[in-house]
Design a protein that fits this description.
Blueprint (H helix, E strand, L loop, with lengths): L1 H20 L2 H18 L3 H24 L10 E6 L4 E3 L2 E7 L5 E7 L3 H10 L4 E10 L12 H7 L2 E10 L5 E2 L4 H19 L2 H12 L7 H9 L10 H17 L4 H18 L4 H18 L6 H15 L7 H15 L1 H4 L5 H24 L1 E2 L2 H30 L1 H25 L7 E2 L5 H20 L5 H15 L1 H4 L2 E6 L8 E4 L6 E4 L21 H12 L7 E3 L5 H4 L2 H7 L4 E5 L3 H4 L3 H8 L3 E5 L4 E4 L2 E7 L13 E6 L2 E5 L5 H10 L7 E3 L11 H7 L3 E4 L12 H9 L3 E4 H4 L2 E6 L2 E6 L3
Parallel strand pairs: 4-6, 12-13, 13-14, 14-15, 19-20, 20-21, 21-22
Antiparallel strand pairs: 1-3, 1-5, 2-3, 3-4, 5-6, 5-7, 8-9, 10-11, 10-23, 11-12, 16-17, 17-18, 18-19, 23-24
Helix pairs in contact: 1-3, 1-12, 6-7, 7-17, 8-17, 9-10, 9-11, 10-11, 11-12, 12-13, 13-15, 15-16, 15-18, 16-17, 18-19, 21-23, 23-25
């Protein structure tokens, strides 16, 4: 039964996927799956028709869900009655979170808090179920503006949310309670519990305790959370089967010990689990664990038994039928993939009598099950995590989870004794985090493979299934599949080395510049500028827990998705924050071979933090001046500027003329009209097919004379969406279009990508 349910679950997955991705590739996969069922599994034609029917049913469920997922708003509305339906998130001077509207529609709220006093009042006032009048505007969420980046619009759509509500004002004095249902009461109890932990536990451990007990990772230190993610340990901070098994087992044991019958304890647990599901945040892993446990106890109550495989198959199909969009949730994918692999591989690790060896085998199986999902979404995996899980899984499940629960319970009853336990618990978390921090610096902590293409993903999944099936018979038979998997991973890791394609990409970093150049066969990876934000002094209360950074949030994920392991040159055109403001984070978290700066501007860089960091890493630093040039991988680079010391930093920008992919390019940094005139007089024959417009298209650049001599076919403008500088200037756009020049701009097009093979290539935009 379990086997058939799991195969039907695969068919259900194909049905849901067909609604969003019905194409030739999916049809081929479905055909191969049906052939597998017929020839290998031995299913009859009648059984195959059942699988086709399941695909049709789940395709219909996905279609019906999508049909219901529409909006009642037009985007012109300004007055709303909003109800806090989820835990509000106060971070610095911003309030964010999902809210319900008077039309029953879900909105993503964004509200700027004006004073520290208002922030304190909101912390005391806000609770789930509070309904308040608000004034503001609706905004369509952004799509992914860079290649392989997170699509926020699609994410919200799958959450049933079509609009971001930017609230100008919320009348908190006129707020009212809208009912007091059991679900709202449980959610508010969760909110109170998290607040209590934040107020009474030290900062180093409060976020971890809140994550383990209530499933809220919001307040974990950004660096600690990054280390756990990097090492493949972050699953320990998400409530899952370990937590549910521990709690239900503990409750069942205590109930039996005090004399309650087994039947009554089963009923009590069946009542407790839905409450705990809500209390712990109802994430996909929590829902899966609780539903599987409820199914197990419900059948046990009626003297029935069900295998773990049948349980996970039933729960998977039920969730997918009622909420098809859960299929695209990363937590849902990882939770079911890892749990499925453990259940189906139980005969493998049970062969090993030693508990340590069992833990290692389970950790390896889980890591392999998560491998395709992690590569698809995050482009990297941790092999060191296989070994660390052997240490951290029992540490968290046997010690830290129960210790956190006991400490919170005792502190509520006996604060003085609880404070002693908090001190011990805090010390333990600090020690664990220091070990994780040290481990994250080791070579195998995290390896970027890039985002696998479709064929590679299919081969990885097939090789993993083959490995599991062969290993189930004997370890010796699995060696061939293990070898195939290793070869595929090595091929994926070195995919860029074998690629004959090159690329020039203007990355959308907002109001700043960053251009990535990838030469064929990994002969050179250059980044011209890093983007960055101009920062202003801000009061302590208004500082956010996580600061946006173009290197960490845009550039490094893009590089990893491309399978780039090192930047050969980081070229900083000039020392403005919007061009080199994220250089420190980039060289701290990514390997850079050489940093290049412009001549006569060394004093502007001398006291910057990233320069000290580069010295500590013994990183090569080069100064470029007019006349410097190099040729690599069929591409030519010539430095046209700077040629002397300039008082204006913009006119001291490095200006590069390049021959890449059959086109001539000129990268101008922030050079203005004065610099353009000097270039025209020095290089009277200068021309280029592609112009990177200087200074984000400001009125002080791209003069008529410059464009007439250069005669570009296309112009690239890096500019922030709805920026406050008025860039690009209307006169510049008119001048470009008047000269018949095709204009690409990041505020409207997202990143702009030129991909080429030898001397021919095409441009494409990230945004449609």
């Amino acid at each position: 039964m379990a086997r058939h349910l799991l195969l039907l679950a695969v068919s259900a997955t194909f049905g849901v996927s067909a609604h969003s991705f019905l194409n030739v590739r999916l049809l081929i996969i479905i055909f191969i799956f049906l052939c597998f069922l017929y020839f290998s599994v031995g299913l009859s034609v009648k059984a195959l028709s059942i699988h086709l029917m399941i695909m049709g049913i789940f395709l219909g469920a996905a279609s019906f869900s999508n049909h219901r997922n529409n909006t009642a708003y037009h985007g012109t509305e300004s007055q709303f009655i909003i109800t806090f339906t989820d835990q509000p998130n106060i971070d610095g001077n911003s309030l964010k979170g999902f809210v319900g509207s008077e039309k029953g529609e879900r909105l993503m709220l964004r509200y700027k808090i004006n004073t520290e006093q208002e922030k304190e009042k909101l912390g005391q006032l806000l609770r789930i179920g509070l309904s308040c009048p608000a004034v503001g505007n609706l905004q369509i969420p952004d799509k992914n503006r860079n290649e392989n980046s997170f699509d926020y619009q699609r994410y919200l759509f799958r959450q049933g949310t079509h609009w971001i509500f930017n609230a100008d004002s919320i009348s908190f004095r006129e707020c009212q309670e809208v009912g007091n249902s059991i679900v709202i009461s449980i959610r508010n109890l969760r909110l109170k519990g998290i607040t209590y932990i934040r107020e009474h536990f030290p900062e180093e451990s409060s976020g971890f305790v809140a994550a383990l007990i209530f499933g809220d990772q919001t307040y974990i230190d950004e660096g600690d959370l990054a280390n756990y993610q990097r090492l493949g340990l972050v699953h320990l901070l998400a409530i899952s089967g370990l937590h549910v098994s521990f709690l239900t087992g503990m409750l069942f044991y205590l109930g039996i010990r005090v004399g309650i019958t087994r039947e009554r304890m089963m009923v009590a647990i069946l009542i407790f689990l839905p409450v705990y599901m809500i209390l712990s945040g109802a994430s996909p892993s929590v829902v899966r664990s609780c539903l599987m446990a409820m199914l197990f106890f419900l059948l046990l109550l009626f003297k029935k038994r069900i295998s773990a495989g049948a349980a996970i198959g039933s729960v998977y199909m039920a969730l997918l039928f009622f909420q098809p969009n859960m299929l695209y949730d990363i937590g849902f994918q990882l939770s079911f993939a890892v749990t499925f692999s453990i259940i189906m591989s139980s005969s493998i690790f049970l062969r090993y009598p030693k508990k340590t060896m069992q833990l290692f085998i389970i950790s390896s199986i889980c890591q392999m099950a998560a491998l395709p999902i992690l590569l698809f979404h995050f482009f990297e995996v941790s092999f060191l995590g296989v070994f660390l899980n052997v240490l951290y899984v029992p540490l968290y499940s046997i010690i830290l989870l129960p210790f956190s629960l006991i400490t919170l319970f005792i502190h509520l009853l006996l604060p003085s004794l609880g404070q002693l336990l908090i001190t011990i618990l805090n010390f333990t978390f600090i020690l664990c985090n220091k070990v994780a921090d040290a481990a994250s610096e080791l070579p195998l902590a995290s390896i970027a493979f890039g985002k696998p293409p479709f064929i590679m993903m299919a081969l990885l999944v097939i090789s993993l299934l083959g490995l599991y099936l062969a290993w189930d018979e004997s370890f010796g038979k699995s060696k061939i599949w293990c070898g195939i998997l290793i070869v595929l991973l090595l091929l994926q890791y070195n995919l860029q080395r074998f690629s004959p394609f090159g690329e020039v990409q203007m990355i959308d970093v907002g109001q700043g510049d960053s251009i990535l150049i990838i030469l064929p066969f990994n002969r050179g990876n250059y980044l011209i500028d890093t983007g960055g934000q101009i920062t202003f002094p801000i009061e302590t209360w208004a500082k956010k827990r996580k600061k946006f950074n173009t290197a960490d949030d845009i550039i490094i994920p893009l590089l990893k998705s491309k399978g780039i392991h090192q930047l050969d040159k980081l070229i900083l055109t000039h020392p403005d924050a919007d061009h080199m403001g994220s250089a420190g984070e980039l060289i701290e978290n990514f390997k850079v071979g050489e940093i290049v700066i412009g001549g006569w501007s060394e004093e502007h860089y001398r006291n910057l933090d990233f320069v000290s960091m580069a010295r500590d890493k013994k990183m090569k630093m080069t100064v470029l001046k007019r006349g410097d040039h190099w040729v690599v991988g069929g591409a030519q680079f010539s430095v046209l500027s700077p040629y002397e010391k300039e008082d204006n930093k913009n006119d001291s920008s490095i200006v590069l003329h390049s021959e890449i992919g059959g086109l001539s390019w000129i990268f101008t940094g922030d050079m203005g009209e004065e610099g353009e005139r000097e270039l025209l007089s020095t290089f009277p024959q200068l021309q280029a097919d592609i112009l990177k417009v200087g200074h984000h298209g400001s009125k002080t650049s791209s003069s008529t004379l410059f464009l007439e001599q250069l005669q570009p076919k296309a112009a690239l403008i890096s500019v922030g969406k709805e920026n406050g500088y008025g860039h690009p200037h209307g006169d510049v756009i008119g001048n470009l279009e008047g000269n018949g020049i095709k204009v690409f701009r990041t505020d409207e097009d997202g990143s702009i990508i030129y991909k080429y093979y030898k001397r021919r290539g095409t441009f494409r935009k990230t945004l449609p």
